[in-house]
Amino acid sequence: MEFAKQEYEFLSEIGLSPETPGCFVNGKWKAHGPTVSSINPANNQKIATVVEASLEDYEEGMKACSEASKIWMELPAPKRGEVVRQIGDALREKLHHLGRLLSIEMGKILPEGIGEVQEVIDMCDFAVGLSRQLNGSVIPSERPNHMMLETWNPLGVVGVITAFNFPCAVLGWNACIALVCGNCVVWKGAPTTPLITIAITKLVSEVFERNKLPGAIFTSFCGGAEIGQAIAKDPRISLVSFTGSTKVGLMVQQTVHQRFGKCLLELSGNNAIIIMDDADIKLAVRSVLFAAVGTAGQRCTTCRRLLIHESIYQTVLDQLVDVYKQVKIGDPLEKGTLLGPLHTPESRKNFEKGIENIKSQGGKILTGGSVIESEGNFVQPTIVEISPTADIVKEELFAPVLYVMKFQTFEEAVKINNSVPQGLSSSIFTRSPENIFKWLGPHGSDTGIVNVNIPTNGAEIGGAFGGEKATGGGREAGSDSWKQYMRRSTCTINYGNELPLAQGINFG
């Protein structure tokens, strides 16, 4: 069978077909759940069909994965790193095909699609180095002839539930580290991006096969809430990493914690950029455009709120409205396109509802504010002048909508920044060392990512990624995030002949 459109024929080069089973269990491709279609958001036409996992498929996969974990965790960490290195090379070889698929299925522009796959490759490289640095500590003991050690061991199986907006990068942040730490991985990709899930899994599974290792070490499922709930409830899965909405994340957390499992949450963001009166305005305007319009406003690190000092408010606003009107909207594969479609028709409807709510709460549309009549899910990039106390400003509208507001003092700006339930990313534009260090300090931004003179998005993998409050508190990718995927043991060794506390007692 051939793909309906010639432009999709390249998908066969990354192991995809027009009809395909959507789960990899016990080293085999199979699926017995419902059949779904992968849709191109630029025209809402079908790319291919995928059979999702049933609960029976899930159980078969988990049994095999649990068994495989005994083999994988016994492999020395540097050897596991070598396998992950090969995964990076396999992805590198298919980088442009995978990036193109990501753009077609998710809707982000081609440079972003390629960049996202590159991020997984970079995570593989990072994890290879990490595989030789899973170090514990030697701790001074207060007892004579005793030594204390801190050791790290694998958890066993890690579940990764990813969202549509970064369908493979978030997997990379988790799976690359989980694998070198000695864990098997169970991945449930987003229901609306099944082809990316399948394509990545095919490349990963081929690497395990070449190394004569069980395919079940990396088990994946295309599926909906039923499979996600099964992962959350499963006591065989020691850690569940969930990326998605705060509402669903809270339910996942409660379910996992009821069985005393571990949870790593990456939830909503409602990120602000502050532009002080001493800022480089041209740099700030370019950064705001990149942060607010990139990925059609569907990043968790998208800039949602723009706080401008009153003395430069109109100057910044005029420049921003001008550049917004120059944004090229259209086919994400076409060179020069800056704004692709929203991911689903439902996202487009949510945009329309959001604009109605904005107007009802006193918001003034400065530019944009409308859907674009087409086959796809296109909307205009939108700037709204609104009060920071409006209820809708506290919510995350997952679309290219930017709320602008003015402030008088640094302290007022920080208060507005911190006034929302979410706490992922934030940025300030200023030349003042005093403001910079206040911003980074305990009375500054309360987000997990705190930037100066750069946008709220575009985080590097070397740092820990994640946020506070309703963003969930999770940390992925760099720094010491690897510790979440392992269990810590404090070990005390008595290498002498005495037990100090037992001196003076005659044991016969």
Automatic annotation (TrEMBL):
The active site is at E266. GO terms for biological process: response to abscisic acid; response to desiccation; response to salt stress. GO terms for molecular function: aldehyde dehydrogenase (NAD+) activity. It is an enzyme of class 1 (oxidoreductase). Gene3D superfamilies: Aldehyde Dehydrogenase, Chain A, domain 1, Aldehyde Dehydrogenase, Chain A, domain 2. Belongs to the aldehyde dehydrogenase family. Residues 33-489 form the Aldehyde dehydrogenase domain. Its EC number is 1.2.1.3. This is aldehyde dehydrogenase (NAD(+)). Keywords: NAD, Oxidoreductase. Homotetramer. It comes from the Eukaryota.
